[in-house]
Design a protein that fits this description.
The protein has 228 residues and is an alpha/beta fold. The protein has helices spanning 3-10, 13-41, 57-66, 127-137; strands at residues 47-48, 70-77, 87-90, 97-98, 103-109, 115-117, 140-141, 145-147, 154-159, 162-164, 169-171, 175-181. Strands 7, 8, 9, 10 and 12 form a five-stranded mixed beta sheet that branches.
Length: 228
């Protein structure tokens, strides 16, 4: 191909027409993607998140539906003074702005108080250790019940007069009573006390034989041999 033929092809309207069409397609494709993403992500559109705390689940759902927000329950808690299904916490703080379609996660109030399993502390820990462990788990404790046994040792747990075992599930609203040893021996235990017996020593430090008191002397028969 000569230089003249190459320049002629470069000046061809057909070539420049194809290049222009390709460029136009690329530009249109870019605009479609841009506006499509803006529409999908609600670019520039924000709404103020309302306060949902202490509202019922149904009321909170209706309120978010009007703002094109989504309500999703992520956890449950328990507040005795509130009815069941009331909102306790929300993931987006009230007054913050969010795009339409955003999910707001909430924690709702449970209808029943949560229950926890009694840990393995019976006859396995001191009163101080058991009390600290139960308090850390969220249990409520009443005054301990002192029973005969090793001082400050936990021998049992009761709730409403019922004896509990490790693994039993109890509501965190119930009061637990720890049965703790008071350091005194059980009155039913019998102990025999024996006074020690000391043998007096003579001047040389040897123990002297003692004649039992109030004992009668033995009569011995003297035997003599035949007379010479």
């Amino acid at each position: 191909m000569t230089i003249k033929e190459f320049i002629h092809k470069i000046k061809s309207t057909y070539l420049w027409g194809n290049l222009g069409a390709m460029l136009l397609v690329v530009i249109l494709f870019g605009l479609v993607i841009k506006f499509g993403l803006d529409l999908y992500t609600h670019h520039g559109q924000v709404v103020e998140v309302p306060n949902l705390i202490h509202k019922s689940y149904n009321d909170a759902e209706e309120l978010l539906d009007e703002l094109d927000l989504v309500l999703v329950v992520s956890d449950t808690g328990y507040v005795k003074s509130l009815p069941a299904d009331y909102i306790l916490e929300q993931s987006i703080s009230p007054g913050e702005y969010a795009k339409p379609g955003r999910i707001v996660y909430v924690t709702i109030n449970s209808a029943h108080s949560p229950t926890l399993a009694i840990p393995d502390i019976i006859d396995n820990s001191s009163y101080r250790e058991a009390r600290g462990k139960l308090k850390a788990m969220g249990f409520k404790l009443a005054k301990p019940e002192f029973i005969p046994g090793e001082k400050d040792w936990v021998y049992g747990i009761t709730c409403r007069g019922k004896q509990l075992s490790a693994g039993d599930r109890v509501s965190v609203e119930e009061l637990l009573v720890l049965q703790v040893g008071d350091g005194r021996r059980d009155l039913n235990d019998s102990v025999a006390y024996i006074d020690p017996v000391y043998e007096p020593e003579d001047d040389e430090g040897n123990a002297e034989e003692q004649t039992p008191q109030n004992s009668e002397e033995d009569d011995f028969e003297v035997v003599t041999g035949p007379e010479d």
